[in-house]
Amino acid sequence: MKENKKIVLRDTMYNVGSYFAGDNALSQHDQNFDFVDFRDGLARIIMNINAPDMVSQRWITFFDKISRTLECTLTFTEKFTLGYVVPFKEASTYGNPDAVRGETFNWTMSMRAYETKVWDISPSDVKKTRKSYVDGEARLMRLFLENLKRALDSYFKTFIPALYKKALFDVPASGGTYASNFGLLHNTQVPEGMLVNYDPTAPVGSPDSNIRNHFIQISNPVLAIQPHDLDYIKNYLLSYKENESEQIIGLMHESDIRQLESYFKDPVRIDNILETGMLSKRFSGIEVIEADDLLPKGFAFFTTATKLNPLFSKLQHTDPQYQGINFDWGGTELFTWESVSEGNFTELKLAVGDTEVYVTGRFKGLFVDTKDRTGELTGPSQTIDSEPVAMLDEVKSILKRKSDQEYLKLDYKLGQ
Known about the structure:
Helices cover 27% and strands 25% of the residues. It is of the alpha+beta class. The protein has 2 domains: 5-162 and 318-356, no CATH class; 171-313 and 358-413, no CATH class. The strands form 5 sheets. It has a 7-stranded mixed beta sheet with strand order 10-19-15-11-14-13-12. Strands 3, 6, 16, 17 and 18 form a 5-stranded mixed beta sheet that branches. A hairpin with a 2-residue loop joins β13 and β14 (286-290). α1 runs parallel beside α4 (136-168), α3 packs across α4 and α4 (136-168) runs antiparallel to α7 (392-413). The longest helix has 33 residues, at 136-168.
């Protein structure tokens, strides 16, 4: 009698988990057709699942380069420090200067678990298939393996990117303190110690103001994006002390990139900043990557994030059995492929270990609306020149729809 074979799936960027290919109770006939067919089919799937399509792979790679992984059990509470203030006062016999102080707060993050059912077939359907076809047992296995391949493909191509996208596109409902919401800053007051040059008289939303909005519009949407827009974006992101020495990376639609090419003549080159292998162009010191397949039309996204100063925090369970993807065979016994019958063809669930992604680097990213929305909008939003030309509500609505779409992918599309 053979021992159970444990097959561990690993990937360079994330743990895919582990599962058992149960061959307990198998006879000594190694060439049993059903078992060999299952074993070989499973081996083919395992060899192929770490090669998702290039579109998915490049975004997985990019997100990994600007993320950190936090291992925990169900919840994780982290203490953040947002800069320090060193107040100097004129010396006085009776006065007492203020002490150096740092702005700190705690965030509690929690994880979610997901699952899909790869195979759900009734004993009567198994019996009917075995009775109706000469190759009934092999037919059942082929159907099972096809579903398994679809589920694993969906995990890599849809599920993993969606974890990051739904966090990225989620716009906070209102402003407040830095610690009041996750997601990029939206009309939010930040500690003055975060800023290189804090000016209490600066216009709200400007680079020297501590009221920050990371959802803005270019200065003249009718004329499309221009070089001075890039200069403002650069000054805005680099106005944070932690961003001062960072490289800015822009994700833009091809049409906006072509617009910039009419002003800049720098050649195309491979991105060497995050080593994602994505083609990029350098405009005004910003590495720009074409991102039509990521962003809603009419939007650009800029970030200074790196692995050391990340935009995203990904939570992952400390126990490997709750990481990545795992197979959950129905019942307590491992699956037996000695003979397919209506009694032993158990349902199979593909379980995604406890995980979640948050935007914790709230000042590391900036959404820019590049579209002329004249006639679409009903209220003011923060623009690059601080004039209320377009509507933040419309911008929020577009990004919220995108975020909701990614939630739907997580909740309904896994395994389809």
